[in-house]
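Entry type: protein chain
Record version: 2
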Amino acid sequence: MTFLIVGLSILLLVGLIVWMKVEPFIAFLLTSLAAGLSLGIPLETISGSIQRGIGSLMGALLIVISLGAMLGKVVADSGAAQRIALFLTQSFGQHRLQWSVALTAFIVGIPLFFNVGFVLLVPLVFSVSYQYNIPAMVVGIPMLAALSVTHGLLPPHPGPVALVAQFDAHMGTTLIYGLILAVPMVILAGPLYGKLPYFKSMKVRPLAVFSAKPKPVEELPGLVNSLFTALLPVFLLIVLSLVSLNFSPESPGYGWIQFFSDPNVVMLVSLIWATYSLGISRGQRMAQIMEGYGSAVKDIALILLIIAGAGAYKEVLMDSGVSAEIGASLEQLAVNSLILGWLIAAVIRISVGSATVAALTAAGIISPLVASGGGDPNLMVLAIGSGSLIFSHVNDGGFWLVKEYFNLSIKQTFLSWTLMETVVAILGLVGVLILDLII
C-alpha cells in the first residue's frame, strides 16, 4: 500500500504541474498535505513536517544559491565568463568544449557540494552556449554528469563520507576505487551522452540572469582576474580543506579554519572580492553593481520556492517512515549484496528524492549484511552511492534546479537530467560489479 500511495502522490504532483498548470511551489504544498494524510501522519504534525522540510533545505541552500546567483551575475555582466569561454575554446578547440567543461566540473565537483558547484559553473555553461551558439544542454550535460558523479561517489561529499564510516571502510581505498569508476562514468554520461542529436535539437533559452550580451574583446577583464574570481570559491575550499587536515579540534586556529571553510562564508568572501575585482576596480559604481545583484535574486526567487516545496514533500515522506518501510521490504530479496545495496538506495531515492537520504537510509538497512562479510565495504559505498543518484524527478530539489536554471519544460528535464542521472547510476553499478570481479 505504501508503494501505491507514494506513486499516486507523485502522479498528483506531476498532474498538478503539467496538466493543471499549478505553480510548482503550490503543487508541492498540496501534494505534501495529501501524502501526509494518506500515509497516516497525525493531522497536528503534518504542517510541522512541511515547515521543517522547507526550513532544513532552505537553511542549507538559500545563502549559497542567492550569493551564487549574484556572483554569476557579476561574472557574466563584467565579461569574465566570456573571457573564460574564449580561453577554453582556444585551449581545447570549439569541437572539444564538452570535454573542457566536463574536466572543469569534475575538478570543481570534488570539493564542492552539487548545488554549490552547479551555481558556480552554470554561468560558464551559458556563456559558452551564447558565445558559440551551442545548445545549452549540449554543454550542460557534461557539467551535470561530472558534478553528479563526484557528489554520489567521492569523499569529501557527505554521502560517501558517512557511508565509509558506517561500513568501516577505508577512506583512501574508497576514494581510489571511486576515481577509477568516476572517470569513465563522467566520460560516458557527459561528453559522449551529450552528443546525442536530441540535445542539439533542444532549443531552450536559459535563465536570463546569466545571458549578458557579448562584449568586445578589448573590454573584457584579464584572464587571470576572470579565472581567479570565478573559481575563487573552489580555491578557498580546496586550500582550507588541506589546511584543516593539519589542525586538530583542540588547536587554537581550528575554529577559524572551520568558519572560513563553510560554503556560505566562502561564497560571501568570493562575492566581496568579485564586487571589487570585476566591478569597482573597473570603474563601476556600487549602486549599479547592487542593482544587478537585486535583479539576480529576483530571477531565482521562484527557483528557491520550488526547491523549498521539494524539501517539504521529502520531509513528509521521511516522517511517515516510508523510506525505512520500502528499504526493509527490499532487504528480503535474495540477490548479490552489492546489487541489493544499489537497489535499496535506488528505490528510496525515487521515493523520497534526496540522494544523501537515500544513501544513508540504505546504509542503515544493509550495514548488518556488510558487517557479517557480505561484500567489500569499499565497493558497497560506491554501489549505494551510485544507486542514490538514479532517476531524479519531481521530488528532488536538483530536478527543479536544473529545470529552472536551464528553463526546460518538465518533459525536457526528464529526457535530459533525469535520464542522465539514470545512466550514471547504471554505469556505477556495472563498474562496481566489474571491480568486484577483479579485486
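Comment: The chain has a mean pLDDT of 86.
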